[in-house]
Design a protein that fits this description.
Blueprint (H helix, E strand, L loop, with lengths): L1 H24 L1 E8 L6 H20 L7 E8 L4 H13 L6 E2 L4 H14 L3 E3 L16 E3 L4 H14 L4 E7 L2 H17 L2 E8 L7 H8 L5 E5 L4 H12 L5 E2 L7 H7 L1 H4 L3 E5 L14 H15 L5 H20 L3 H9 L4 E2 L4 E2 L14 E7 L2 E4 L2
Parallel strand pairs: 1-2, 1-3, 3-4, 4-5, 6-7, 6-8, 8-9
Antiparallel strand pairs: 10-13, 11-12, 13-14
């Protein structure tokens, strides 16, 4: 019996060695789920392009420890049901070791139920805080945009300095907007603000003048709009059309030049929001730890695609860097990648400097944002 056990152990060791050798000579497959088409294409298209750009660059430099990286990318079109179907395909057919995306909070919440069950690391490119919290229930789920409560707090801290205490909320009814609304109301109560108007709009609404007319009749000192385009751009136009003079704040969900383009420079003039540093990297101090990376990313993206890099593409950059660094640090199994992600410290990337932990699967703080104002069709840092 002892000889039989020894023989079995030897066979197991040989099989493991063969498996490891095969993995070393093969490719590492990661998945990408992005809203490349549909209403959230302004998020998904730059995410897809960024991931493709980074994978090509990595492979040109020899891959990871001699192994090439392959990205299998699918377009979810912003549909949560489709996102789950494609995530299933990535896991069962494509045999990926990690998934980057989806682009939106609603899709991410739908997909993470599957990836948690299958123990596949998911690095979402969406902002909703519930994607990663509580971390004890999201062991395989991470995300790259700063939590919406961080963006909400950045806005409120600035508004407090301006003595704007009476607030009007106008939030979209999707996952991103609902999460932002919840965080804004919680933080506002903690910080002594008064919510004097609380309006919502649908993701497909094309006119928000009824809600804004109610807000105009309130005693609000400022408006906070929480959503992603095209809604916020429509609201910005409506504010201008109605002649509303109160200050308007947006979420980080519109921190790209596309928002200014959609709203028009004239209507967006003076709008304020928390933005990632990519939007204003040329205004940063030269010793800023992110400045060099941001400049190089923008240059590479412009060279490849003929347009500037966006904050949203930056979310995929962050996810790629987190996953590849986890593989370099720990290995390419799903469990090793999960552990490597959770143990990430001081990783400088597009959205900030990531410091993950067992209780924080986002790893960004207030330093991830700068308060900016739209000035003459461009961003200007608020002091």
């Amino acid at each position: 019996m002892k000889k039989f056990v020894t023989f079995c152990s030897l066979v197991t060791m040989l099989l493991c060695s063969a498996s490891m050798a095969l993995a070393a000579s093969g490719t590492i497959k990661i998945g990408g789920l992005f809203s490349v088409t549909g209403p959230a294409s302004f998020l998904g298209e730059p995410e897809k392009k960024t991931l493709e750009l980074l994978v090509a660059d990595l492979n040109a430099k020899g891959g990871i420890n001699g192994q090439k990286l392959e990205a299998v990318i699918y377009d979810t079109a912003g549909d949560a049901t489709k996102a789950v179907q494609l995530a299933t395909k990535l896991i069962r057919n494509d045999k990926v070791v990690a998934i980057i995306g989806p682009s939106t909070t609603g899709e991410s919440m739908a997909v993470l139920a599957l990836t948690e069950k299958e123990k596949i690391p998911l690095v979402s490119c969406a902002a909703g805080i519930k994607i990663t919290e509580p971390a004890k229930d999201r062991k395989f789920t991470f995300k790259t945009p700063a939590n919406d409560h961080v963006a909400a707090e950045k806005n409120l801290n600035y508004m407090a300095k301006q003595k704007q205490k009476n607030l009007a909320l106008l939030t979209v009814t999707d996952g991103f907007g609902a999460s932002g609304r919840e965080q804004l109301k919680t933080l506002a109560a903690q910080k002594g603000f008064n919510i004097v108007a609380d309006e919502t709009y649908g993701p497909k609404d094309t006119d928000m003048t009824p809600q804004l007319t109610k807000i105009r009749g309130s005693k609000a000192d400022a408006i906070i709009c929480w959503g992603t385009n095209p809604g916020p751009a429509i609201i910005t136009k409506n504010v201008k059309q109605l002649g509303i003079k109160m200050p308007v704040y947006m979420s980080h969900g519109v921190a790209s030049k596309k928002y200014i383009e959609l709203a028009s420079a004239a209507a967006a003039e003076g709008v304020m929001l928390p933005a990632g540093k990519l939007a204003i990297y040329d205004m940063l101090a030269k010793n800023d730890p992110q400045q060099k990376l941001l400049r190089e990313y923008d240059a590479a993206y412009r060279k490849a695609y003929g347009v500037e890099a966006s904050t949203f593409g930056g979310y995929a950059y962050d996810a790629f860097l987190l996953v590849t660094n986890a593989i370099k640090a720990k290995g390419a199994t799903t469990a090793q990648i999960r552990d490597g992600l959770e143990q990430t410290k001081k990783l400088v990337s597009v959205s900030g400097i990531f410091n993950m932990s067992a209780t924080d699967h986002n790893g960004l703080d207030l330093s991830a944002f700068e308060m900016v104002r739209v000035t003459k069709g461009d961003w200007a840092i608020l002091k």
